[in-house]
Amino acid sequence: MRNYVLGMIAVARGMLVGAVALSALASMGAWAATPPAQPKTGPGSQLDTTGEVVKRAVGRASAATYVYHLATQPSEARAVVVLLHAWGAVNPIVYGGWIDHLARRGHLVLFPAFQAVGKTRPGDATEQAATLVREALASLASDPQARPDRNRLIYLGHSAGAAIGLNLATRPLSRELPVPKLVYAVMPGGIASDEKSRGIQLADLSGIDPETSIVTIVGDREFQAAERASRRILRDSSTIPVTRKLFMRSASDDHGFPALSATLASPASPKEGYDLAAIKLPPDLPVDPRARRAPAPKWAPDMVLTGEQTVLLGQVQRNVTDTLDYMAYWRTFDMVAAAALSGGDMAAVRADPSLVDMGRWSDGWPVRRLTAETPKSGEASTAAAAPAARGPVAAAPIQSKQPVTRRRESRQSR
User: Would the pTM of this model clear 0.70, i.e. be above it?
Assistant: First the structure.
């Protein structure tokens, strides 16, 4: 009996200590500094906060492009932003926050469904995307609300989508596509290292028009493969002057709560209302039973998501929209897009000190700033010369947007 009583006392003490610890943690969370919210004005802000965003699709059920724009008739044609998703992230809800932001800033957003998971090979994705973009622009040409401006087109790609955007920008006239003003490559990955490797085969980037700007941005977590891909992209696009190129890096910061973690999944911004299930797709044309059918694509292993790709897909689906989205991705995109669409270069944007500013935590402490650099002409850095990542997702350890566990650096060095 005595041992039983002592055991119960020990359990009670343990529960009391645990309760005190939880209470302390809750108190710390309640008093911790909070990160900056979305800007009210300027780049990164929404120009229209109350208008309705039209969500529809053009094409057909088996080959659709999702279309987003404000439900207004614009006074001038809209700049076109083609958002190209990461491998496997085929539902636009994954990028719903960013799509909503772009549409409310007056853009026409196209989300081509270039991949059928389990059926599309990475080697076929570029041509599928080219067909969808070409057909969507033709279908919307006379639409009074969409009003696409073919002379103001941008490719915005995440991970494998960045590689596809670069391929579409290479010799676009041969695919009957407009020459893009900008390719904005976020966490570029999925680039095959050679013709026999799994992943997106990157085209000869020397075929990109010299008037096109290229901006790449990576995070400081799981960054090595994405940085190697970025350096390769900036080096191989040899016809583009360095004044039209920019390499950027976003930084994690655990000064307050919730912490900011710049992972491969961090550019995703799931938002209700952008689920493809809510959009009625145009039906496929009836099949003539007497017509000769094209042979079905032969199954190949790279049609199926790898375990790593499945993990990343789960992370982008569970992601949260935070300061990294508002300030690191949306805001910088707004700034470089405005420059590119107006005929400016990236050197002028880099010279603007506000480009790297991430705002301040609620206690006044500055959020870790972005870094931005103009690549040197002809420079082949060690990172650039390293082998490219294999597979449609960069081959690096994947972590979700969780509190950063890195050792806190001294405040004097920040």
Answer: yes
